[in-house]
Amino acid sequence: MRRTLVAVMAMAVITPVALAGCGKDEDKGASAWMGTPSAGASAGPSAGAGTSREESATVPISLAVTPAAGKTGVPVSAEIGLKVAGAKVTTVTVKDAAGKAVAGTLREDGSAWVPSSPLKTKQKYAVNVVATADDGTTKTAGTTFTTMGKPGKKTGTGLYLFDDHTYGVAMPVVVEFSPGIKKADRAAVQRRLFVTTTPAQPGVWSWTPNGTQAYYRGPEFWKSGTTLKVRVALGGLPTGGGRYGDRDRSATAKIGRKFEMKVDNATKKMTVVQDGKTVKTMPVSLGKKSTPSSSGVMVVMEKKADTIFDTTAELGPDEGYRTEIQFAQRLTWSGQYIHSAPWSVGDQGRRNVSHGCVNVAPGNARWLFDRTLIGDPVTVKGTGDKLSYGNGWTPWDKPWSEFVKGSALPVPAELK
């Protein structure tokens, strides 16, 4: 069946898009490799520089700090750049014009200090940095700068993740951008997308071709019980074309049990596997020849106990229709769902009659609906249509070797 999307997971998402239904179409945790700040990397963002004295080190210490002293018009996303040799940065202190300390953390590689939230506009900041050599010798450097005013143009952002929610094992971290980020600007944006997993699991960011979404996933589904901690630190960040990120976003969520739905067009059946064991099989009816279901690895994106599929605006009053639907679970933006279809029970397990959705009997639809989580994986195979990348949360539809090619930053050899 087809219907117009009213909204999908309203969390912090940018402008909703109207879409049709059923259409074609350890454990410290691991930080994301692209430059997550490390909370234990410094003496603490609010710690003072103290009265460290400088002495002659065995190896001379060099320490340079950016932004340059006296610089104005600095974006409120500004990081304190650190270039040090012969020592390690041990303290970074940033204070506003009122003398209040600003919270922040060092990047894992020590290349910069990242504020925990955007700085204030048109504000003067003072920075003091202390580097300490192995023999205890210290060197201090500082700078001052003034931030820019409010930007005239912004990039809208969204994060498809809620605090304190539990998701399926295939839940990617999905960040959305409007307008999309051009290739030349993606690396800078990606450096400000931070993910920590507990227990530690590897992961990589990858962009959709049009730059409207970036996905974060690992080589395998997340382990049950994983905690995902995400910060999208884009508030005030230059995103290209004179635009700046609209705001910072963050969420901490859990991953639940492993629950997979596998649909095979050859048998017209869905097999449900939980924690490695088959718990149920059920007959299905998929898309007919003129409106085939998409084959690929999808993810449950939205659940509606009751909704209406409405195609009258899309197809006109003669060919379109409005149909009440129960237990609908969205798989694609273009409108592929799993849902209750009492009218096709006689066809389920025998022939395909839908407009692209996975039709199941009312009792089976209710059984699934009561057990699924947003982020549960759904694999459909053997149909006449291939899932289009980006039509839904599709990062699992690419093999890992292809997925990592979508990163805007170099991928470490151990993650390729």
Automatic annotation (TrEMBL):
Residues 1-20 form the signal peptide. It holds the Pfam family Big_10. InterPro entries: Big_10, LD-transpeptidase, LD_TPept_cat_dom, Transpep_catalytic_dom. The keyword Acyltransferase applies. The active site is at H339 (proton donor/acceptor), C357 (nucleophile). CDD domains: YkuD_like (cd16913). Residues 259-381 form the L,D-TPase catalytic domain. Residues 35-51 have a biased composition (Low complexity). Transmembrane segments: none annotated. Pathway: Cell wall biogenesis; peptidoglycan biosynthesis. Residues 26-55 are annotated as: Disordered. Keywords: Acyltransferase, Cell shape, Cell wall biogenesis/degradation, Peptidoglycan synthesis, Signal, Transferase. This is Ig-like domain-containing protein.
